[in-house]
Write a structure and sequence with these properties.
Elements: H1 10-16, H2 20-27, H3 35-45, H4 49-61
Amino acid sequence: MHPEYFRPTKKFYRAVGMTQRQWWSAYRGETKLTETQYKALCSHLGVTLQEAFDTRQISWIDPNYLQQD
């Protein structure tokens, strides 16, 4: 996973209901997504809420999980 390759567009920000500043603040872990933003992000990326939740739980338990290439 290489997050530096992700380049959000204005269309992305509108779809998830966030500004650029809000997105990167959440990305860096400085703020949390609202429930509405979380659902919109999952929908936009084509990820189910269950998949997102499962991944979140795995990364919380095993911090190296998301660092695999």
